[in-house]
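User: Could you write out the 3D structure of this protein bound to flavin-adenine dinucleotide? I've included everything you need below.
Assistant: Certainly. Input first, then the structure.
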Amino acid sequence: MSDAPKPAPARPAGRAGRNTELSEALKAYKGVWVFIEHDRGHVNPVSWELMGEARKLADKLQVDVAGVLMGGPDEPLDAFAKDAYAFGADRCYFVRDPVLKGYRNEPFTKGLTDLVNKHQPEIMLLGATTMGRDLAGSVATTLGTGLTADCTELNIDGRALAATRPTFGGSLLCTIMTLAYRPQMATIRPRVMQMPRRDDSRSGDGVEMPLGMIETDIVTKLLEFIPDANRNTVNLAYADVIVTGGKGMKQPDNFKLIWDLARVLGAEVGGTRPVVQAGWIEADRQVGQTGKTVRPKLYIAAGVSGAIQHRVGMESSDVIVAINTDPNAPIFEFAHYGIVGNAMQVLPVLTETFRSYLDKRIRKVA
Ligand code: FAD
């Protein structure tokens, strides 16, 4: 048999209605895949969060989980594969080629669509990151299949992927199923799914596939890498402690109180959308549906009403503390601890209390 990829499909022949059997063409698609996103030697942790989710879906379907690793020949894809096995993959597909060093849409789309056409997974998950969103859209379009973006929950209904996401400005959740085409594709934002436990005793097999593309085939050229100035300073999605300010902080100068508490706690600072829109803090710090999804151990929200579009981005936090003057504010419906009071008075008290408590603890340890 030739190793050459099959030609781009042909949407799988035959439609499968909501309650009908899958057609033979669709039945050939088996397994759950995760696109493993990496950049400059580091895997984006969202890929491991998705690997944990892929494992759960695959166990329900009784199929294998595979990771897809694409990159330059000198990139540590084999080391990433070991991590992928530890997080739940049974197999990794590798596409190694010099033109895959540094993300560009064309070669990555070709690599991933060729792999799908040859090995036919039924489900493919990608992080809803800048790279994942760009790649998922072009791969789904090239394959002529469905893609559900920014999912908050994944399940199996019959043999189909039931992908849930917010809709109508976040006020409703809808569940979308791709019944007639394969693979069923979904993107999921960082921190929406839990990080799975590593099991270093696990191993898996590797399958290589050539890309069959040369530099002159690619329109986009990578001239220089300019790191994002905020990249190492704002790490909201993976912060353990976040102090967030909302419009109830009244004016930008009062945000100093948020920063003071964050500094004492070693926390990141977050904000609601109105605060970002007013220019009180940078857009990278927005928490919520159109901002970041976070899962810290402690989330302190001051002057935040708790609107649904904010809530969806932070409700998985282990402990939520809300400070609000309005005892009927929606945030008190899901906060673990609530302080009814003026944030401008409560925040300095919290800052001083934590400062003296932490100072005492440090002195005790010393
Ligand atoms: P407000 O709703 O104005 O609430 C201020 C709160 O502060 C009130 O509860 C008030 O009682 C309290 N307060 C007032 N004074 C004090 C005081 N002195 N001390 C303590 N508390 C005080 N929002 C997001 O946050 N993130 C998103 O990603 C996001 N995406 C959106 C996407 C769409 C499509 C839409 C339509 C909206 C989105 N929003 C988002 C906006 C969202 O609907 C709310 O408008 C927003 O979250 C409210 O922000 P807030 O809580 O800071 O302000």
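The CA atoms of residues 171 and 308 lie 7 Å apart.
User: Perfect, thank you.
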